[in-house]
Design a protein that fits this description.
Distance between the termini: 122 Å
Strand content: 35-45%
Helix content: 10-25%
Structural class: alpha+beta
CATH topology of the largest domain: Porin
Number of strands: 8
Oligomer: single chain
CATH class of the largest domain: Mainly Beta
Low-confidence stretches: 1-7, 37-59, 69-83
Mean pLDDT: 78
Number of domains: 2
Number of helices: 3
Strand order of the largest sheet: 1-2-3-4-5-6-7-8
Order of helices and strands: HHEEEHEEEEE
Radius of gyration: 49 Å
Amino acid sequence: MSSLFSLSPTRHIVTLAAAAAFAAGTANAQIARSSDTLSSTSSTNNESSSSADSSSSSLDAMPPEPAAKGAGQDDRGNGYHSHGHFNHLAFEAGAGFNAPIGNDTPYITWGGNFSGGVGFHFSPRFSTLAEFQFIDDKLPGAFVAAGGGTGGDAHIIAITGEPVFDLFPKSTNSMYLIGGGGYYHKSTNFTVEECCDFYGYPVDVVTDSFSSNQLGGNIGFGYTHRIGGVYGDGTTKVFAEARYLFINTPPIGATNGLGTTELIPVTIGLRW
């Protein structure tokens, strides 16, 4: 201690200046290290923020994911179920002619028919119809003359169930199978011409008539052409079909029968 105080004033000043310089250098080094640490942390945060912003921009730029398609929808959203339950309903209306075949050709000849039906589409390929059909055929001249008349006709009224199977439901042009059966009422009428109506024209008067109720069936095939729709997806179709019709009418020996009835109805119309 005595040696320290014995130093000259000049040496005291030099010693204090050296200590102050050492302390200042240490403080500057600590401040520099703190600044580097803060700068590094700030740079890391900026990079993370930039990366997050870039990822967010990429996500925003991506197109929205398309909504899941509903059952039965195609790429245009016009699916089989797109119009609700009404789209499942099936309708038909048509008219045509009948050709007689079989053993009853001496008792019935050519005529016309009209049919209409309503039903349900279970799928694009399979549907059913509840069908009404009216058939009007003339009686052959020889048969009418044998009955003592001058004219005659046979009327057939049918109410049947008809399954329909479409072979190519997605095509504009398709083929289908149809067949079914049900209730048939057949009436045969003989007429004579008498004079006259209010305007002086001769009129046909029924002189004899008999009828029967029985079961019957039919089977056939047809062709359809789809019409309407922007993309060929219309539900209306033009159809042309031919069926074999069998009716179990009473035998020829019965008072109200002319034997089994067989016809080929050919019908053209619309189905949707």
